[in-house]
Design goal:
309 residues; alpha/beta; Rossmann fold; Cobalt-precorrin-4 Transmethylase, domain 1; 12 strands; 16% strand; flat
Amino acid sequence: MILAAPRGFCAGVDRAIQIVELALQKYGAPVYVRHEIVHNRYVVDSLKEKGAVFVEELDEIPQDGQPVIFSAHGVPKSVPENAKKREMFYIDATCPLVSKVHREAERHHQDGDQVILIGHAGHPEVIGTMGQLPEGAVILVETLEDVEKIAVKDQGHLAYCTQTTLSVDDTAAIVATLQARFPGIKGPRKEDICYATTNRQAAMKEIAAMSDAVIVIGAPNSSNSNRLVEVARQSGCPKAMLIQRAVDIDWDWLEGVSRLGLSAGASAPERLVEEVVALLRSRYEVTLEETVLTEENVTFKLPKVLNVA
């Protein structure tokens, strides 16, 4: 078995989970969380056991003075505004790299540019980024075909941003098409696709070429996990599958596989990787080999309100 590295938790996910855990330690249960803090059922269930209460919208939360935490994916501006109106105590666990995209979009809008956002419709991060600007200020594109169809008011005042968890290669193609169609379009000063997404996709390319099949551990609603499956298929391993837990392994699907690649999306804890390896070892003779593409040492500061240095 070939283990991809880096894999699993990124700094933004780690920070968001720590925020919920530290809030529970400091303020006691319940601590409310708007939407899944990160896209992983195991993580969400673990936090529920500790006293976190997950809600879809703020109006589900009683006026009990307990903190409400916004997820790592970011929220539209209307959410903290509504929380302030209701005098709620909220803590924002938005990943700093998502916040960077929010600020970029705002800056372009203030400069008079029409913002084009490359991303997946309906994903919480996209809803949050589009929600930083007035309705209609952002045009969402998902595909090359979308780029060909969009109508803009002024080609001289255009800028693009991207969701942080997209396919690096697919996004590069969309950006190239945008630049060909609108030569003056402005882009981010630094790549919007985050370091963790980029690193995990690069590691997947490395192991896919050496594997008969690839398993990615992640949630079905996790953008970065789904992209890893796509990257595996595009990189020489058409047999690639997304699973949430070890119990989801399809043993018939593994028939005839001698070299299995294994990775995990940025919201999946290493414990789930260990669980998969242990279950595979209970049925097969497994030799582990890790392909380390790069070492990650990124950390993000926690909110001051949690009194952590």
